[in-house]
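DM from R.C. (forwarded with permission)

"hey, sorry to bug you on a friday — could you get me a structure for this? deadline for the figure draft is monday and I only need the backbone to look sensible"
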Amino acid sequence: MRRQRGTKIVATVGPASAGRAQLRALFEAGADVFRLNFSHGSHDDHRKVVTHLRALETEFEHPVAILVDLQGPKLRLGTLAKGPMTLKRGQKLTFDLDPAPGTAKRLPLPHREIFAAAQAGSLLLIDDGKVRVRIVAAREDSLDTEVEVAGTISDRKGVNLPDLVLPLSPLTPKDRKDLDFALSLGIDWVALSFVQRAGDIAELRKLVAGRAAVMAKLEKPAAIEHLDEIIHQSDGIMVARGDLGVELPPEAVPPLQKRILAACRAIGRPAIVATQMLDSMVHSPTPTRAEASDVATAVYDGTDAVMLSAESASGDYPLEAVQIMDRILRSVERDPLYRRLMDASRREPEATTADAISAAARQCAHTLSAAAIVTYTTSGSTTLRAARERPDVPILCLTPSLETSRRMTLAWGVHPVRTEDAHNFADMVQRAVRLARREGFAAEGQRIVVTAGVPFGTPGATNILRIAYV
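My reply, with the result:
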């Protein structure tokens, strides 16, 4: 299952793709990671998908990563007395905690946390920002507002407050139950919605207790103010551009995407660019040229992975979406400009042995036109260092850990293989050569660059670089 590209594809599973035959087709077409959105579907539905994916893993003898996306808190209006209602610019409205159906003068907003954080001058967005109101006065149980952008609202529409940090845990009681269930299935990544601060990720990490890798979804402006801390606290990052685009001006999202990806690469955290990448393919067999360019831009920016949402979960053309995504990625990575951008954006290695070895491995592979870089790793840290360098050859990750092999499928350029750790120097080289040939990365007469750590099997002890002939 060797991919002819470094950038990975995350495919969201839903009604259009949940059957074993559909999942197999998506995997063969290029999907590397499968996302289960716990905002939808039952536990039984998700259990069946996990069973199918683990069967595929056995059939193809290749790790398959499963990413669970927790729903997080949903802030919504209450109900309206007379159904949908049109708000006019300049109209005065009061929001309060009273659950009684709303009228043209007051609306129910059943979230006490909003009133605790609200401040005069802050924006309140309704229905993904289609309607905007400005808070004029804030009290502990009511908000006086004025409509700035008119529109129609209806029952239970979503509410966003881009200017505020809410005193609200991103983990709801539903999320905690979903998390326990997901971890019992042995999933590989958990993505947390509504992240506002690094402490939110620390809360999730404590509950996960090492049973999965933890990913922060960046969809709140407050999270950007704590970007570096959140990235350091997380194992991976998702750039959730749809929600960011609601709470930030559209023109702010592209440079923010570049900033986040650069920050992730600087410390070797895998990053996913998500939301509406090939959105027209929900109902069309081909994407727009603008969508193809959007995917390409994320690749030029250096992302580890790009994600399909409704396109693969509920769309009419899930297989075609994965196939076209794969074609776009391979096309960009063949462009000489892509290689120049990856080389130009490389950071200087930190003054550690592991970083020095990883940087030297990339340089050796390039200078010698090696077929691949082979990394021995237990925790995955050695492989992530190699991926951060964005070498111009693939990275073969050898690990004794099934969990690590699955998680590494998300990282740029990495082809994970589960195998015993090396027993000595001779075994290290022989095993690397044998598996590089078996997996289709090297042929007789070619060279590979091997990194490992002594004592063998010690996490984070990368201190060896060897060049081996196949």
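R.C.: lifesaver. The chain is about 35% helix and 20% strand.
me: no worries. The chain has a mean pLDDT of 95.
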